[in-house]
Amino acid sequence: WNPVEDSTIFHLYNTIGSHWAKMSKVIPGRTDNGIKNRFHNLRRQYEREDEHRLRFSSNQDFPDQIRLDRLRNFPEHLQAKSDKLWDMEAGIGVVAAQSILGTSSGRSQSYFGPFREPSIDEQCGRCGFFVPSVQAGTEICAKTGWCQPCTRVPPHVSSNLLRECLNLRRSQKEEEREVIESWEDIPMEKRVERKIARKPAAPDQPKREEAAKGEEL
Predict the structure, then answer these.
(1) What does the pLDDT look like over 23-81, one tens digit per residue?
(2) Is residue 204 pLDDT above 60, yes or no?
(3) R_g of the chain computed on alpha carbons
(4) How many angstroms separate the CA atoms of 180 and 176, rounded?
(5) Is 147 exposed, middle or buried (0-12, 13-18, 19+ CB in 10 A)?
(6) What is the spatial distance between Cα 187 and Cα 1, in angstroms, rounded to a whole number?
(7) Distance between CA atoms of 85 and 42, rounded to whole angstroms?
(8) How far apart, in whole angstroms, are the C-alpha atoms of residue 180 and residue 157?
(9) The dihedral sign for the CA sequence 137, 124, 74, 41
């Protein structure tokens, strides 16, 4: 098994649930029983690794690598099926830091590479972020089409939780970091309110308002 297959299993589990036979049609050369066994083996393996990670590290240990101000309780409406199997979100800050330090998913690192510069407007094939960016780094794996950070994040961190994790990364270039982090993080509902407030009135809006005033008189 390789990291791409493992990541695909968790992605499909989040999408269609435990329909192993359907998954076997998407993952060439793998049977439904093989995929099922692989899923449960990975679940036990990564549960142990998550517990080990939190036993020796915490999010607060990496202030230079992650945005501590962005740590939050992961909204329930963004959670996928696999997110509820065990407490993965507690350690995503550590995973994000490891994606910068290069100390995550060591067993699979030999699978990835060589890395290349991205083409214009290229997106990572796993997280969907544009490369280059703070979230996705500056290089793409030529074999998988994944950004370098995604090659360092365990396969069970997927979908919205994966993007939540990568969004915690800080730029390692001091000048760039100061500029980026000076920008205001605006919640979506506030963005909508500002957009509505800036929206110009329709050309005939003053005429309608004058007619309405005339009717009142």
Answers:
(1) 999 999 999 999 999 999 999 999 898 888 888 899 999 999 999 999 998 888 888 88
(2) no
(3) 22
(4) 6
(5) buried
(6) 40
(7) 12
(8) 25
(9) negative
Cβ atoms 159, 80 nearer than 8 A:
yes
Tell me the whole-structure pTM to 2 decimals: 0.81
User: For residue 214, what are its two tokens?
Assistant: 């005339």
Lookup result for tokens 């998550």: 50
43: Cβ–Cβ under 8 A, 6 or more apart, which residues? 85, 86, 156
Tokens of 206: 């003053």
Q: DSSP string of the chain?
A: --HHHHHHHHHHHHHH-S-HHHHHHHSTT--HHHHHHHHHHHHHHHHHHHHHHHHH--GGG-TTTB-GGG--PPPGGG--TGGGTTT-GGGHHHHHHHHHHT-S-GGGGGG---EEPPPTTEE-TTT--EESBTTTBS-EETTT--BHHHHHS-TTS-HHHHHHHHTTB--SSHHHHHHHHHS----HHHHHHHHHHHPPPPTTHHHHHHHHHHHH-
Using the structure block, give the residue that is written with the tokens 């030529």. 142
